[in-house]
Design brief:
The chain has one domain. The mean pLDDT is about 75. The chain is elongated and about 35 Å long. It starts with 7 loop residues before the first helix and ends in a 7-residue tail after the last helix. With about 60 residues, the protein is mainly α. Helix 1 crosses helix 2.
C-alpha cells in the first residue's frame, strides 16, 4: 500500500497500529528506498540531505 502512495495514516489504521509512528518505524525502509530513487532521478538537494543520509545508513550503498 505504501509503495502505491497510500496515506500513512490510513495504512496505520488498516494495520491496527496504535500510532502512525509505529507504522513509520516498521516500514521506514520503504521511504528510504523512495528517497534513493528520487535522488537517482533528480539528483540530491539540500532539503533532501537528512533523508538521504538516513537512507544511505540503512543500505550498503557508497556515498557519491
Amino acid at each position: 500500500m505504501l509503495r502505491n502512495k497510500a496515506k500513512l495514516e490510513i495504512v496505520s489504521r488498516i494495520l491496527g497500529h496504535s500510532s502512525v509512528a509505529t507504522t513509520l518505524d516498521v516500514y521506514r525502509h520503504i521511504y528510504d528506498e523512495e528517497v534513493l530513487e528520487e535522488v537517482e532521478l533528480h539528483g540530491p538537494t539540500s532539503k533532501m540531505q537528512p533523508a538521504l543520509e538516513r537512507a544511505l545508513r540503512h543500505k550498503d550503498i557508497p556515498k557519491a
